[in-house]
Write a structure and sequence with these properties.
alpha+beta, disordered C terminus, Chondroitinase Ac, Chain A, domain 3, elongated, 916 residues, 7-stranded mixed β-sheet, disordered N terminus
Amino acid sequence: MPALLGPVSRCGFSAALLVLWTVFAGFSRAGAEHAATATLPAAFSDLLPHFQVEPEDEYIVKNKPVTLTCRSTPATQIYFKCNGEWVHQDDHLIERTVDPATALPIMQVTIDITRQQVEKIFGLDQYWCQCVAWSTTGTQKSQKAYIRIAYLRKNFEEEPQGKEVALDQEVLLRCHPPEGVPQPEVEWQRNEDILNPESDPNFFVTADHNLIIRKARMADTGNYTCVAKNIVARRKSTSAAVLVYVNGGWSTWTTWSSCSAVCGRGWQKRSRSCTNPTPLNGGSSCEGQNIQKSVCVATCPVDGGWSEWSKWSACGADCSMWRTRECTQPSPGTGGKDCQGLDLQSLNCTSEQCPQTVSGAEDVALYVGVVAVALCLTLLLIVVVLVYRRKKEGLDADVADSSILTTGFQPMGIKPSKPGVWAPRPRRPPLHSKNSHLLTIQPDLTTTTTSYQGTLRSRHDTTGKFSMTNGTLLDPLPNGSHTLHNGKLNPDPPEFVSRLSTQSYFKTLPRDVANASYGTFNFLGGRLTIPNTGISLLIPPEAIPRGKIYEIYLTVQRKEDLRLPLAGCQTLLGPVVSCGPPGVVLSRPVILSMDHCSDGCLDNWALRLKKQNYEGVWEDVLLMGEELVSEPYYCQLEAETCRLFSEQLGTFALVGESLHMGAAKRLRLVLFSDAYCSTLEYNIRVYCMDDTQEVFKEVMQMERQLGGRLIDEPHILLFKDSYHNLRLSIHDMPQAHWRSKLLAGYQEIPFYHIWNGSQRYLHCTFTLERLSLSTCELTCQLCVWQVEGEGQSFSLDFNIAKDTRAIDAEFMLMDSSATALAGPSAFQIPYLIRQKICSSLDAPCPNGADWRMLAQRLKLERHMSFFASKASPTSVILDLWEAQHFHSGNINQLAAVMADIGKQEAMIFLVSDGEC
């Protein structure tokens, strides 16, 4: 019917038709049809409408309406139809213009579509609108424009998950973005920086939005986030941590070291390190040994030897004949000495063999010159002798030969010459010497040994240093000179005691120093102990020379204050202990006992004893297993204790170097908590310390100051040299009452912090939060383990408000024994009984019932060579027994050993203290 409104109508008629059309439109099925009419020139009456602008798809964002536009030329009317329904005329906005190029009329119509319209009719289904343009020739329909409500859900359908990957491994991170309209775009971020696959071809984003890292690099370690966005919103997934680790690889072996033996059988070693590459980010360490040892045989030096002399040559014209020999039996080799002596000999021929020659004038002149020189030398020698004798006669008669002053310190002996053996002729004394008898004094051969009785004294002012007083060897004379007593003691006991009482002693240690002990000792010896540390110093009888009194101290050094050089796989295995004063004279070794935390297997370790010298530099003084009995230090390693025999006092430390990954340190794991909890937070502290008593004592003292309490028995963990960290985590905690404030799933202590051993103790704190103050019961499980290694777990179940368990009492530091014991009270074996045992067992016995059997019965046969190097092997064995069994020793067991050996001296143990 709109086709009837052609160009024939003009003003009034067109208006009438428009009214009729409007009435007709009112009776349409939707009541929303409208008409926008216009008259067209006759020249364009046969043209169909052409759309210049068609409606396009739109998205409704939140509550903002969208506008659809339709433009056509030539057109008498334009209308919109949405989802099959005509849009009401009042909802159209009409605009008419003329195309300047063609003079055709242009009609543009716009409508607004709201969110309510779309939701009311079709909900979230598709909603479309179409534009219809009319002309006198016919109609044209535009394309459909779909109107959708835009949205973006909050939750991702699949989020990326964290991964630990090896270097150069491919990584796939999945991401399925939230549902949204329009379809959301996806981009990836690493540490909040947008990844651009075009600039970095190592990254690739698939069509389904997954991220692929073709070859993981160390720089690719980070937090990856999937970001989805459209016109409505921008959503981020949870971050996925990608950890790129590096598995360790061995470096090449170093060259073999030189053979340890100069001559004969020895050993050499080579090493490699796990640095090619170095393990990173928890990567596995290298498998196998980092040190290899090999037996080597060093060629011994061969000293050269002379061959037989050759036959004499014929007599020559110079009336001499020759013979030679060579250094070929054997020839010197491998640094051996060359032959000593001449390889050529000459001999004058007899007159019969020598060819006769006539001496010329030159030979006569030569002989005269030789005789003149000999006469001059003879006269010069006579003058020198005369001058020397005059000077000797003019010496002061009061000055004695200084050699007699040394006889008190060094034994002297003059042996007569054997018949037939050349001996120097004794020189006659000067004829005019007043005190010539002093030069002919014979030493007292009845005194076989000499000793210096008394303490040492410096020549200069010794304020604050070790006091040295005059001994009995050099007594002052009124005229300032000295006389000699042949090293014998003054037999007057009161004078000896009074002299000792006036001596001054070494004072280096303040009286209020913690973790230290000191005492005054003489030749009877004694013992120093630092309570609750396992550290003690045994001073055996006769270790301090008779007549000397020393004040000796024993203390534990703080590891943080020392710069102990540790390299490679070395670790500190025990406390750093000082005993002194340094430089005191000892007649026999003292025994220093201290704890260690190695696994006790010497095959796994190269154990070294380090000593700090006077300049503060640490030096290696002993390698365990390669001790020399001639050295002043010797070690016995027990399961948990190291006992050092030392002839010198100083500062010592036991350092271990692991030979392979089987080496392990013992760690003591201890749990403490708050004694009182009045808030919602509750702390559990886990200490991971070396398994030595002195560290445990320090932690206990610190926790007492903090008001903490021990909540479980300590556990022992073997921590291996595997480059893996120590990991701690808490599990099985009732989520309805407790929660952990730890952001990660576990805590870690780095490997080198533990292995180095230079830190006193390490600990981690777990902060828990109870959801109500009425919650007092705590049940959980705390696990401590070395990554890819052994572990320990603590099952906790107690009341935080009132814990009545007596765990604290069991581990309280209650040792109140004396720190210093001097004389017989320091030993279990009485002094006189000890002397009888030594005299009985020191002498070799044909059936072996001597000190060797005593060492075997006490399971000390490993140290036979060390005992044999001492003047009294039995006394050293008894010293070690005293050091081992001071607190727990049973003297009856020692008596049973003596009886087993077959010595009747076993009965002497039944002697009472009064009889001793």
